[in-house]
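Morning F.,

Quick status update on the modeling queue. The single chain you submitted on Monday has been processed. Sequence for confirmation:
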Amino acid sequence: MTTERVGVMFDRGQRPEDLAAFAAEAEESGLDDLWVVEDLSWAGGVSSAALALAATRRLRVGIGIMPAPLRNPGLLAMEVATLARVFPGRLVAGVGHGVGAWMEGVGAGTPSKLALLGETITALRALLAGETVRMNGRAVRIDELRLVHPPATPPPVVAGVVRPRSLELSGRVADGTVLAEGNGPARVATALTHIAPARPHELIVFTHLRVGDDPAMLAAEVAPVAEETAGFLGVPTADAFLATGDAATAADRVRSLWRAGATTVVLRPIGDDPLGQVRAALAALRPEM
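Structure tokens below.
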């Protein structure tokens, strides 16, 4: 069995009431992961993960990602520990900086973004491990806290980050790193040089997926997504990486991310029939299934 994981994102635009059925179908399709999103004004990451976990038996569920400015690490540890105890071995907790403008818009902006993220992840991992935490950091203060119900096996805590200093921080304090959509093999390889982890470290790469045989249709549907993705990363539109084309071509593009060092590739389908597209790509990736 391959050690390279493939998952699907439950897109933030999909209705929360559709998540349970989507998760069950994703599991039946043979996927390894389902990832839910916590973007401000869409759906909550912890509650979404709970819905997906309850609707499935095997699927690993990732939260990608919870903004540290919105999440007190003590409360976050309580939430994550509850899910990890009830669904052992099936949760990944993603934490990141959050979108700066969104954080400012709800009064959660901070001048100490790196410190807040690093201290939040450090405290969260220690609390999930059952430790008593005392922290008087630049951004996080905890005066002797220990979870009453820590999980038997702490879930991985991963950092959703973009820039070199944040990637280096992730390599030091987190169990893995989440790279946003648009990062192709070259950027994945470069990110790994910044992460330079000292212990086992999962690299999770999100990528847009559009499977189809009509080049004109693909170009029309993919163009605005590529432009938006490039804008977020600050790169030319032509440099935004997507897994598009017929099933075999899309699968080859996923493989290129694995070859570059990705451990897990999470597909974010564009257009109609998202799980149908994912199944087509999965069949090309894993014919034995």
